[in-house]
Structure formats: C-alpha cells, structure tokens
Design brief:
Radius of gyration: 23 Å
Distance between the termini: 23 Å
Strand content: under 5%
Helix content: 25-40%
Order of helices and strands: HEEHEHHHHHHHHHHEHEHHE
Structural class: mainly alpha
Largest sheet: 2 strands, parallel
Number of strands: 6
Shape: globular
Strand order of the largest sheet: 1-3
Amino acid sequence: MQLRNQPATWLCAVLVMAIMPGCAAKKDDGATPGSSTAASTDTQVEPETTNEPEATEVADASTEPAAEPEAEPEAEPEAKPEAKADVTPKETVVAKAPAEPAPEKKPAAEKKPAAPAKAASAKPPTVDSPHTAGIPGEGPLTTEEIKKWLEDPKNHEVIDFELPLGMASAQAAIKGLDENPLTLAKIELGRQLYFDPRLSADTTVSCASCHDPDEGYARRTQFGVGIDAQEGGRNSPVSYNRILSDKQFWDGRAESLEAQAVGPIANPIEMGNTHDACVACLKGIEGYRLQFESIFGDEGVTIDNVGRALASFERVIVTGASPFDYAENAKRFADLSDEELAEIKTDDPEFYAEIEQAKKDVEAHPMSESAQRGWALFFDEQKTDCKACHAGANFTDEQYHNLGVGMDAEEPDLGRFTETKDEKHRGAFKTPTLRNVEFTAPYMHDGSQQTLEEVVEWYAKGGHPNPHLSDKIKKLDLTDQDKADLVAFMKALTGPFPKVERDRLPK
C-alpha cells in the first residue's frame, strides 16, 4: 500500500483529487464506518450496513492505486500497532462481519509505515487470460468503448468455470457461483473497481494497494497500510484462490466473498470512505453507471453490486499448474510398462497422447531433488503431517488453529475467538493456502516472520506454548536438510497467475 506521509507526496495526492472525480468529494461525514474485508488489511471495525465484511495462515488472503508509484521501504514500526480486522449460454474457462471497533485514527506523522519484508522480491509468473485482460484498447476507458463492450451479448453469457490442473480436484468445493454467476462483463467491472483508488476517501487507495498482483496479491509490509499511512494490526491476506472459500478474513467473520469485498471501503484506517459516498461517486462516473445498469438492471449502482462485481473478479484469480501438479499428474502413469504403453498406443490413442503430454509437462516444469524430498516429508504423518492443516487441492483445511503466534504479547490478538466466543478458537487463525506462498512474505497473521525458513523453524519448535495451542502442533525432529527440503517443496507449489490489465479504468 502506498505511503503518504511526506509533504511532496501529499501535494501529489491533492492534485489527483483535483483532477480525478473521487469519492472524497462526495463523502458524508456523518456516515458510520464499515468493516474490513479479505481483500483488505483485515482490520476490525464496526459495520456500516448489512453487507460488512480473509485470509490464511502461513501466507494466505487484495490494494494498490492504478498507475501509482511504488512505496519506498521504511523502518520497522517502533511500537506494536493495535490489532486490526483483517458480485445466457455457457463458455468454458480454465483457469479470494462485524467485529471489534477499529483503533482510533491517528495522524500520519504519529506512525511509521510497516517495513517491507526482505523476502519474495521476484514477481509471480503470469499467463495470458481473456477473462482478466480488460476491454480491448489502450489508455483510459472511453464511454464509446464501454458501450461497445456491453452491447456484445457474449460478455453477458454465464461462464461455466473450470479449475486448472492441480486445483481441479476441488471443483465441487467452488463457492458462491449459484448466488452470483460469473460473466465476462461482471468480471471486467470487478477488475476496474479492484484497481480504482477512487473508491477511497482521498482517491489514493485501491484494493490492489494491499493485494498487489506483482506481490502475490498480498503486500510485502508487515501490516496493511491505509489512507493517511494508517496501519492495522494484521498482515494483508492474499486474494487469490478465494473461489474455494466462503468465510473470509483471518478470523472468518465475513460469510462470503461478496460480504468481504465492500468492507475496506468503509474502514476508517483502510479506504476511509462510506458506502453511501462510494456509491454516489460511482454513479457520477458515466462508464461505471453504464456497466452497473447493463449488468444488474434497475438496481444499478449499489454497494451490494459493488461487492458482487469485486467478488467475481477475485474468483477468477486462480493459480495455474505448478511443478508439483505436473509431477503428481505424471505419477499416475509411472508404473506402466513398455508393453502396456504400446498396447495403450494402439487401443486408445487419446489416452496415450495424455500420457505423453504428462511426461512433457514434467520435463518442462521439473521439481528439484530437494523439493521431491520435501514432498515426501510434507505428507509423512509421523515425521511432519503438514497435510493435517494444509490439506486438499488448495493446501488449506479452511479451519482455524492456534499456533502460538503472538500469544506471548501482553494483549494477544484472539483471532477467531472474537467471532465465535468459543474457547477452542482463542488465538486461532485461518489456515492459509500454500500455493504461490513464496511470493507472499511476510508470513503469519501478524506478519512476524519474514521467510519460509523462519516459518518452518516455528513449526519445528512446536509453536509457542500456550493453553490454547492446537493439538495438531507438535515439535518436529528435522535436520537442516529436512527444513530446506520443505521450503523447496512449498516453492514447487508455484503456478502462474492470470495476467491482469490494471491501468484501463473509466474516465
């Protein structure tokens, strides 16, 4: 998230507000702030309306203003911040609640922004995708381009969404499409909203400021940073593979992706706006008004429809096949003899072609020997049993566990307990996906660990003892090589994100 605590940068922000129609100009100061979302810094605040509202643990969770300069690294905060709370024929596609009051808003000069993590400096791999490429053209979106896009009936057809290799086994676990079917027009509207800083009170913060595609749909700061350089108290969760989650946030308080998508808009230390002001702002931009009316009919621009559009975009941000997925796929054919292969080639040419392709994929995307050893360790129930929590196609059980992280603080973040009041949830946070985890440092709900090596070390020592430590956490007898192999395996879970157009927004 961009940091706005220097005089020269504040002047830029004022100029942006003078030029760009933003929500700030229409903000109702009397409106009540709303709660944060998974596509947010996960800061807890009181809800504004009925639709208030993730994230994951070792490195799970989306917000950067379009065409905004990169934030410069700054020093680590001198004091621990308060805890924060973390939207027709078919087409086939292959392919991220109420809580406690927010911390009192403080002037930017009184707080230092969280320092970037030192790990995961490379950009994630991407692959072309027609579903996130944006409306064809260059430069800001014109009204004529938007009208032409909306007039094409193909853009309003319901998409039969299919998960890619590796994730495909979780197809039946997809959430939210019955209530909010995907269309290209809705995904494209959500894409625009995701990257548009005009949703924030001062037109400086977008969803991508805390959930940047170039940073693994997370942010390399310990905590999320909102308007006026304000910080929350939890690490920004990732906003990919959310199609497999219903409840969102580190504490799971948002019941759906739609509910979580609108929270940061009204969170006073994130986008700092109100839902009413945001809706008024979008109604004043013709390109947005035309899209909402075409997609949602007479309802047009509402905060619920903003959530539906944002959720649609986030649902198609799905990780592609990784070296592990290719290896696991080819493993099915490993025991076939030459005689059996010859027979298959004659009797079932299509199946033989599938086998040959699987072999080519492994050669093109190999796992290192270290990663292969880590693979065996990861699933070894006696040695590590990592799959006890990092289970399934997305490597998360979508449950909440106390690892002891932050439990030695004077006033520890109680996580899921704040939502359920169940003692077993005290200090428990949602298990994150391990897919593409190498790009989402720092790790844990409080961003306290900079590298995957530190994370493995934390598990090896059995977490931090406390009365509510998960029974799945135990000390691990691992050598230095074992630890390195586990890290190598997690990095072998990296697959490409869909390439996303981030700059083309309505004028």
